[in-house]
Amino acid sequence: MKHISKFLLWILGWKVMEPPVPEPKCIILGAPHTSGWDFIISYLYYRSMGRTASVMVKKSFFKGPLAPIVRGMGGIPVDRKRGASITLQIIEEFKKREVLHLAIAPEGTRKKTERWKAGFHTIAKAADVPVYLGYFDWGKKEVGRGEKFDLTDNARADLKEIRRWYKTKGIIGKHPHNFTTGKDLE
Predict the structure, then answer these.
(1) Neighbours of 23 (CB within 10 A)
(2) Domain span including residue 90
C-alpha cells in the first residue's frame, strides 16, 4: 500500500512535506477540512509512509461488510449518541493502544464555521499526547503533519494560536469559501 499511495499522490499532483510523527501516540489536526477529499489525501499521505492514522467513525459503520474496510482504514468506532462521552471513549483508546495517531478535524464540519471545537485539546491533555498541526493545502497541493504544538492549560488561547498558525501559513482548502480561521483572531 505504501508504494501505491505514493504513486496516487504523485498522479494527483500532491507533495508530501514532512515525515510521520515520531511519537507512538499523538493527535494530528487536519485543516482546512472543506471536502471529503481531505480524508483521502491525508489517508494516502500517511499510508505513503507505511503508517496508518486513525479517525473517529460513527459506530454504525462497523456493522456488516463495511466493518473490516473501515477498521482497516484506521476507523475507531464512536457512539455519537452519547455526546461528551466521545471524549472519554477516545481517551480510553489512547490508554489501550501502544500506537495511536489520531486525526481530528478541529472545525468539526466541512461547512464554513466560525467556531472550532476544542475536544482534541481535552483529549490530548487527558491522554498526555502531543498535538501536531496537520494540513492539506489545496492551493499548493502540499500535505503534511505540520509542527508540534505545545498545549497550555488554556484551551481558548491555544485554539487562537493554532488558528493563527493556519492563517499565517496561508493554507487553502479545496472549497476556500468554507475555511475560516475565525473572528477571534480579529
Answers:
(1) 12
(2) 2-109+118-146
The span from the CA of 39 to the CA of 53, in Å, is 10
Cell 503534511 locates to 144
Residue 161 lies in a domain: no
Task: Give 103's strand partners.
Answer: 28
pTM attached to this predicted model: 0.81
Radius of gyration of the chain (CA): 16
Q: Calculate the dihedral angle through the C-alpha atoms of 96, 37, 177, 171, rounding to the nearest 10 degrees.
A: 70
Segments of the chain with pLDDT less than 70: 33-34, 80-84, 107-117, 173-186
| Phi and psi, residue 147, nearest 5° | -85, 155
Q: SS3 of 180, please?
A: coil
Whether 45 maps to a domain, the answer reads yes
Residue 84: its pLDDT value, please? 56
Of 121, 119, 107, 110, residue with least CA distance to 38: 110
The string of DSSP codes covering 127-146 is HT--EEEEEEETTTTEEE--
**Alpha-helical regions (H) of 48-154:** 67-72, 85-96, 119-127
What phi and psi, each to the nearest 5 degrees, are found at residue 181?
-90, 0
Q: Could you give the number of structural domains in the chain?
A: 1
Distance CA 146, CA 125 (A): 19
